[in-house]
Specification:
Dihydrodipicolinate Reductase, domain 2; 7-stranded mixed sheet; alpha/beta; Rossmann fold; 13 strands; homodimer
């Protein structure tokens, strides 16, 4: 395989750090790596394969000769620079929500809709972190039993709000232990010892954008425009893995055993389901792992005719929920269909 | 009002402390207060109205002359001693699940089904903490729009697992800040910076008992045997207030505005719902408050014909979720129908 020129836009963020770790660990075929960030990070260096690489400024001209550009610098930066990167010949794999709802931009989870990736025109969108983690369990069940409706309540780690928010949780906990008053700056309210049911902007229908992402992105990735879906997204004082409580309704009857069998066969998924033996996934235990984990599978007793399931899904927000899925999209392009 | 002889069984626990605080604050008409606990707590004293009262041993003979006995010493202690207390002439208000599903024992939330309290035969059961908090919002909506199905995912504070579990969260956080390894003893897994989707024993249908309590108790309190209900109960690293994400389906159409109007008129409930202005309840903000708080009210976009709602409910687990509701039952008996 030829060696690529790869760029990371937003290299100094929480997802940026995860890109560096995964590209090295997975032996992505990199000949040259360009690290890009906003002007205030220029001058810093980041370690990759034992070398300290300089961070340079994210500008429209930064993408000459770049093959794959991983963007995780926020929606406005993607809006501003991804088209220039694509015009310069790079394939942009964008972790922001800027292009996800554009019909011309594929939205891809490689285990679910890999074929969509090859329809790109220079930009491929990486789905929302909670959407990726949820759909990893939901898509194989949809294929087997025909998903009619999905109800989601999330338990989202602070990593999803970025490196400064992660530092804020850590600082609040230190201050609490030291008996100091707690400072709230990067989250709408105190996050230590609290949960916050508002992530991203409130929409006209009173859902947040984070909640609507699950609806919009779920329909697009599953190619299921009629999917009935609703979400409540909640931030919890956990550092880096998201959990989701799901109630699903299907067109076909489903049992716990048949669901477990479908989930066990699904790629990228690991079943941990023996609650009497304390076997079920939790955020602390899955952090740093590549798979998405499923447990607490139950036949939903509130759905008639055995057509419902309740389950619990957990995945690393920074890995499969962000950088890993993006890197897997790049690997998919390299591998070809 | 004549002065009562009141007993608290389980006086040294987290709910016991809340009983002492509330009985004093609400000027419960107490002439004599007997504090009962297991043998290992005998010799301790607890403060009430400026006096240090001795803790004595919980035995079948401890209830002679007692008018109201508040029990919060765990299910097995209630099983062992509540019948003796009732036989001695006390009215037992029991915070455990021991008698909740007994047809002869009323299960009461004073704002919802006060009339049931007067059918007691010596024992009245206090509902599960999460059930109380959830039903405070759900009951008025049921009366207005006819509840067909309720889907709940909870965010439950560690106070629900008792004083030792609260101390464990605190110790884990101190150890984490100090860079020491974390000890797990009173919870199935690490609770600091984690969430745990298993509360109480796993049942034959793979739901936990905590989850089934919502189903069983909801039907009994609402006198609604056909209610379709499902729950996923999750412990979060929060000290003392529970939150619940609810998706509700009704027989009649409902709008956000009509739902808000019903909720604003409901006793014991406070609406905090302006998410763009960061107005929604969180556990830290409602701790120590008597009301149950509701916010994030949305018309559920996944339910056809405008018959669904999504909402977020938060209440103090130790107050309205336990001791306050029990004290209110006692006050209801004193007031009469």
């Amino acid at each position: 395989m030829s060696q690529l020129h790869v760029a990371i836009a937003g290299a100094t963020g929480a997802v940026g750090a995860e890109f560096l770790r995964l590209l090295e660990k997975r032996e992505y075929p990199i000949g040259r790596l360009t690290l890009l960030a906003s002007r205030r990070s220029v001058g810093r260096t980041l370690r990759f394969r034992g070398e300290d690489l300089p961070v340079t400024e994210l500008t429209p001209d930064a993408f000459r000769g770049v093959d794959h550009a991983f963007f995780s610098a926020g929606g406005s930066q993607s809006q501003a620079f991804a088209p220039a990167a694509a015009a310069a010949g790079a394939v942009v794999i964008d972790n922001s929500s800027a292009f996800r709802y554009d019909d011309e931009v594929p939205l891809v989870i490689p285990e679910i809709n890999p074929e969509d990736a090859f329809r790109h025109h220079g930009i491929i969108a990486n789905p929302n972190c909670t959407t990726i983690i949820t759909l990893m369990a939901l898509a194989p069940l949809h294929r087997a039993f025909g998903l009619r409706r999905a109800i989601s309540s999330s338990y989202q780690a602070i990593s999803g709000a970025g490196a400064q928010a992660m530092a804020e949780l850590e600082r609040q906990v230190h201050d609490w232990v030291a008996g100091r008053s707690l400072e709230v700056k990067h989250q709408p309210k105190q996050i230590a010892f609290n949960v916050i049911p508002r992530i991203d902007a409130v929409q006209d229908n009173f859902y947040t954008k984070e909640e609507m992402k699950f609806v919009w992105e779920g329909r697009k990735i599953l190619h299921h425009a009629e999917l009935a879906a609703t979400a409540t997204c909640v931030r919890v004082p956990v550092f880096r893995s998201h959990a989701v409580s799901l109630n699903l309704e299907f067109t076909k009857p489903v049992t716990r055993d048949r669901a477990l069998s479908v989930l066990r066969d699904a790629p990228g998924l690991a079943v941990q389901d023996d609650p009497t033996a304390e076997i079920y996934p939790t955020p602390i235990e899955v952090s740093g792992k590549n798979e998405v984990f499923v447990g607490r599978v139950r036949e939903d007793i509130s759905v008639p005719d055995g057509r419902g399931l309740a389950l619990w899904v957990v995945g690393d927000q920074l890995a499969k929920g962000a950088a890993l899925n993006a890197v897997q999209i790049g690997e998919l392009l390299l591998r070809g269909r």
